[in-house]
Amino acid sequence: MAYPANHPQRFALNYELHARPPEALNIPEQASYLALASDSSNRQADYESIVELCTRYGVTSPAPELNHFQVDLGTFRLKWERRAECNSYTFFRQGEFDDPFAQPVIASVPQDWLERLPGQVLVAAHVALRPAAAEASGSEELARLFEGTALVGSRVGDGVASVRADFRIHADGFSRFLIDDVSLTPRQAGRMVQRLLEIETYLMRALLTLPVARATLPVLADADRQLGDLINEMTVVTSEDEPALLDRLTRLAALVESTISSTLGRICAARSYQRLVERRLAELREVRVEGVQTLHEFVERRLLPAMSTCETVARLQDSLSERISRASELLRTRVDIALQRQNQSLLSTAARRAKLQLRLQETVEGLSVAAVSYYVVGLIGYAAKAVKAVGVAVNPEVVTGIAIPIVVIVAALGVRHIRHLVQRAAT
Hints:
Layout: H1 10-17, E1 29-37, H2 43-57, E2 68-72, E3 77-82, E4 86-94, H3 111-115, E5 120-131, H4 139-145, E6 152-156, E7 161-165, E8 175-181, H5 186-207, H6 209-234, H7 242-284, H8 295-389, H9 396-426
Parallel strand pairs: 5-8
Antiparallel strand pairs: 1-4, 1-5, 2-3, 3-4, 6-7, 7-8
Helix pairs in contact: 5-7, 6-7, 6-8, 7-8, 8-9
């Protein structure tokens, strides 16, 4: 059927709608999960590790552009997902088991392949799904399965299953989730496992910002103290010291902006991960079990203080940046006023010098008129004597006396005319 051309992103966006589908799980089921912190530089290595495993088991490898991949490798099933800041590997095995965590699925995965996986382990968890017993699990059994650690849990999905967890790293390096099935469908079971694992993954991604925030707090406290000292100095500093004070304030602004640039991305990411954690917790639809703290309560009590620290850092950074900006504007205003005063003083000095130069110029002009008149009158006197010498009846003294006022007037008019020409050319 003929129809218009597809948008270049149509298929990619449609693929994104169906990305990371949950695995359908038939209870009893076990799963082992690894989330490895990674970045774009490891993208090719991540893909090559999946290709290597598929080649080892003789199955078709995924296309390079895929971000998730599911395959049955016989002794276990693999679900691989490529995320923005980590890659996750979930290994599933369906079948009966006596101890939920004694023989984890990951023990069936080639150990040499696991050791070569690129990235660093951020989350590692074992999940066991089993049919709910007629009677609820006793405290002794749960204490044995979770090595005596304090548990959290609830009935989830409005009562279709119950979950127990401790969010602790056990001796094997994995945390543990135990799900007792009441009436889960395979798809529900898959979504439940996916949500629980995503909660722990997003929780850890959010908490990664906490060490950064803690390290930044002393820097901001010191910057706040320096800013207070600078503001106090502004009240007593002289105009000569204001440029140095402005330089110190500029350096402090650069320090604060540096902390903002180094933490803003992590804080924004932590906010996003916090929202994802809260959404996944809401999707569990927990029903409280008497005497047991719910997953939502546990996560909230641990996550909110950490996020409060991150938000405190963000608010301090914004506050410091605004206060430094206001102080800089105030100090620049003072510097500008001082410069204007200096400029006015310089202009006044220049005006006085211009007046002196004008008076000097007028004096020079008078001397010039006198000098020119003296020489011209002298020439006229010599000319009159020469005329008398040839026999003409001329009195040189009379001619010289008559010529003096005439020459002085003509010389003064000439100098004045030259000055006007120069002034006209200058304008």
